[in-house]
Amino acid sequence: xxxxxxxxxxxxxxxxxxxxxxxxxxxxxxAFYDMRKTAxxxxxLFLIAVAIELFQRKIPLFKNRARTLMVIAYAAFFLWAxxxxxxxxxxxxxxxxxxxxxxxxxxxxxxxxYVDTAFRLTxxxxxxxxxxxxxxxxFVLTVPPGLWGVQERVGKMLTFGGNRGAIMLAxxxxxxxxxxxxxxxxxxxLPVTIFMFIAMIFGTRVVLIFLFVGTFVLLLTRAKxxxxxxxxxxxxxxxxxxxxxxxxxxxxxxxxxxxxxxNVKEVxxxxxVDDPRYVNVTEPKTxxxxxxxxxxxxxxxxxxxxxxxxDSDDPSxxxxxxxxxxxLPSSARKRLTLIHMAFDVFKFSPLIxxxxxxxxxxxxxxxxxxxxxxMELLATLGLIGFALYYWIQGYFVIQSWRRRRENxxxxxxxxxxxxxxxxxxxxxxxxxxxxxxxxxxxxxxxxLQTRTLNVRxxxxxxxxxxxxxxxxxxxxxx
Length: 478
Prior knowledge:
This protein is about 60% helix and about 5% strand. It is built from 15 helices and 4 strands. A hairpin with a 7-residue loop joins β3 (about 450-455) and β4 (about 460-465).
């Protein structure tokens, strides 16, 4: 532990422009999401600062394999997405999405090149943890504890995060779990508990999946014997069971996320096929531009909607008196429907897809994204786009598995990327800045394991970042 604290604080007085820009960029992307213009300014500042450093230090851009492959992956995916404009069905939104892809690609590559020392990797995770704390403080100040669990998902009451903030808390929680396991610093579970409690209050179910999968992969890859693996897994299952009981029995948790888990169970059961809590009605279509409204075959002036039945007491379908908004089935049922529809679109054009950002224009009556990164890519960019996006993550996982005994940092790379892939079944990540900051950090870890620098004619230096297993204090050099 000492090597990391000494490394961090001894360099604090030597922070550069890129370090400050990185912190401000992550702060406004994750904790102040409502200030989008300011976030873009700091993203540009960060990229400029990294570019200046690379130029001043004459760092070869394509000498390290991890960085080079990262650039190739982003460039190939962007070019394929741009090429899909030839058959895209909505060019206006296509251009906006393409710009978004270019933006996150620049951030991912910028972070990969920014993390060039062990200090900067430590500082980056430290900055992300501080950002999470600031987000939680802002949340508590915005939504008093007295309102938690009163009005369904607390995330809906926010303008600066919602699900995005909850997922950010899950990401940094997995990093802290990694440090707790590899360093045996159990006190790190305290901030993890706080972060995940707030994330669950937001009603974001995927945070539980992400953290469970990531922790399971950490335990699996770190176990040195079958006995150790089964013991660790048993502890994880017991903790997960306790969390589930709390979600189902503690009111503040049940009213925000527990009932949503209950809905998933119903949707996946035969009972959900004919759910008595919902009734189908036909109502006049008052807004022709309503994206959730679908014309009935009998009368195009009316729409089919699903409203809660009058005797329903489930908070997920509660209806305020005089409420006139359209009610669709539960989120879980809607997501399954969107996935089935995306698969149908994929079968129509499996190789190249229907064009970037095209799926949400063909999935009436929802007219939205699939809420599934894999299916969104398959439907819009086909198998080619899917492979171009995920191959670099798969490469990092395979390399980390092969070298997992060399350094514990490989365990974090595997755990995070596998958990992210599983969570992508419930998220849209290919155009999200938050996810690509972390992907850039994973690439930075891969770079630091066997980095090769040639600065101003000096001899090449190969360095690995410090081990963090059980307080080890030596920096491995070869």
